[in-house]
TrEMBL record:
InterPro entries: Acyl_Trfase/lysoPLipase, P-loop_NTPase, PNPLA_dom
Keyword line: Hydrolase, Lipid degradation, Lipid metabolism
Domain PNPLA: 1-196
GO MF entry, a single one: calcium-independent phospholipase A2 activity
An annotated GO cellular component: membrane
Name by which UniProt lists this protein: PNPLA domain-containing protein
Taxonomic superkingdom: Eukaryota
Gene Ontology biological process terms, A to Z: arachidonate metabolic process; glycerolipid metabolic process; lipid catabolic process
Pfam families for the chain: Patatin
Length: 457
């Protein structure tokens, strides 16, 4: 991402969710996919968050011995708590975004059970297997899925499912049917072919995919001490299958410039997940940096291809569900926060009247604004205050304004959210929507920027 920043002359290192239409993985890759895709982290934030989780989680239970009926050598409860903390720190709820963007010292986030499904984020996919039928192929947990069986799964539950490697963690029951899931690394340690197929389904009719595959550096077994021989055997097959998938994809895409894989080839053979410490962290970093230095020319080629006119570029967005419009608006909010510190930033979801009211109530509480009339509600209070010079410059983001009747009113929906939008010559109002009709209705109040369709990447 730093190379992309340099090539595109950006003033910040972009987030992967701004450049990729779909991010996926399994096990460690699944956790990272959730951090980068569902939670929209920067690469640096992801590294820091993953290290924090790993240092807490990858410590074997005292006297842990793996047996055929073992619940795992690592604590599932500690893992769940660590992921919940990460979710709270990088919560994408509108009210929490307001607090972070404005640096407000407020009560801690209460959204540790944030749902995995989120149509507005970059499409994120993680894989897991059903424990009782591992030959059935992987289950794909999608942020953009609309089926009912897994609709209530939280971020931490999906992270547990994709990480539930036998001997490490006990399986987790999820969904309406309470099916037990384990990680998909046994047979799908390199899920790239499955994710390519998923991308083709998610973006039908688009053959010019841009694929970046990042390996874990496995060349021989990377396992735990005290592990049964059968598991060692499976891990060996897992490492072999990963290389086989990579070889098949290399043959399929050749020098087309569509497929790039980076995988540390030497130095990580003896790293064990259960011995995470500072020395191991340094070893991984050293070997990875050495590998990337050797692959500098290949990385330059990827960046050049990725940022060329024939592929997705920053600032484009595909008009449809789950396109990441919220992430684009979020990045703009971060830019304003970093470059225009005099601006206050307010994030108001327009998914429903209730979500809009809730956000306004949070703004009133955080700003400590006083009512001038007893019958003045929070929406009217926010509009009045932000429309005054007293409020100073601001950015007001109305996110996911997809319901025309809700925003502008109709015979059946008399309420109009737009009448509560503030107006000021020193304020900026940004509205995100999937529908041109809403954008056109908004042009009488603000200029509309139409963002062109984006190819899958």
């Amino acid at each position: 991402m730093e190379r992309i920043r340099d090539v595109q002359h950006l003033d910040h290192v972009p987030r992967p969710c701004e450049h990729f239409d779909l991010i996926g993985g399994t096990n460690t890759g699944g956790i990272i996919a959730i951090m980068l895709g569902r939670l929209g982290m920067t690469v640096d934030e992801c590294i820091r968050a993953y290290r924090t989780v790993a240092k807490r989680v990858f410590i074997p239970k005292r006297n842990a011995i793996i047996t055929a009926r073992s619940n795992g050598a690592l604590s599932a409860q500690i893992f769940e708590e660590a992921i919940k903390e990460t979710v709270r720190e990088f919560c994408t709820d509108g009210e929490c975004l307001n607090r972070r963007c404005n640096g407000l010292s407020t009560p801690p986030c209460e959204h540790s059970d944030l749902l995995f499904r989120e149509q507005a984020c970059t499409k994120t996919v993680v894989l897991a297997l059903t424990k009782d039928n591992i030959d059935a192929g992987p289950t794909l947990f999608r942020t953009y899925d609309k089926s009912t069986s897994l609709k209530d799964c939280t971020i931490w539950e999906v992270a547990r499912a994709t990480s539930a490697a036998p001997t490490f963690f006990k399986p987790i029951k999820l969904g309406r049917e309470g099916i037990e899931y384990i990680d998909a690394a046994f047979g799908y340690n390199n899920p790239c072919d499955k994710l390519i197929a998923e991308a083709r389904n998610a973006f039908p009719g688009r053959s010019n995919l841009q694929i970046l595959s990042v390996g874990t550096g496995l060349r021989s077994v990377v396992g735990m001490k005290n592990t049964r021989p059968s598991i060692i055997e499976a891990l060996q097959k897992m490492a072999t299958s990963s290389n086989e998938v990579a070889a098949i994809l290399e043959d399929e895409y050749g020098d087309s410039g569509q497929y790039f894989r980076f995988n540390v080839e030497r130095g990580l053979e003896n790293i064990t997940s259960s011995d995470w410490d500072q020395d191991q962290d340094s070893t991984i970093s050293a070997h990875t940096n050495n590998y990337l230095s050797q692959k500098s020319r290949a990385i330059d080629k990827f960046v050049k291809t990725f940022t060329s006119g024939n592929h997705p570029q920053n600032g484009r967005i595909w008009v449809g569900e789950g396109i990441g419009k919220t992430q684009v608006a979020l990045q703009f909010a971060y830019w304003v926060n970093n470059n225009l510190p005099q601006y206050s930033i307010f994030w108001v979801p327009a998914l429903s009247e209730a979500s809009f009211k809730h956000a306004c109530t949070g703004i009133v509480r955080d700003l400590g604004v006083q009512r001038v009339r007893e019958d003045e509600d929070d929406m009217g209070l926010v509009r009045r205050y932000l429309s005054s010079r007293e409020a100073g410059p601001w950015l007001y983001v109305v996110d996911s304004a997809d319901d025309f009747d809700l925003v502008f009113g109709s015979d059946s929906v008399p309420g109009q959210l737009c009448k509560h939008f503030p107006a000021s010559d020193i304020g900026t109002l940004l509205l995100t929507t999937r529908f041109g009709r809403v954008a056109q209705g908004f042009t009488t109040r603000r200029d509309t920027i139409e963002i062109s369709q984006m190819e899958a990447g």
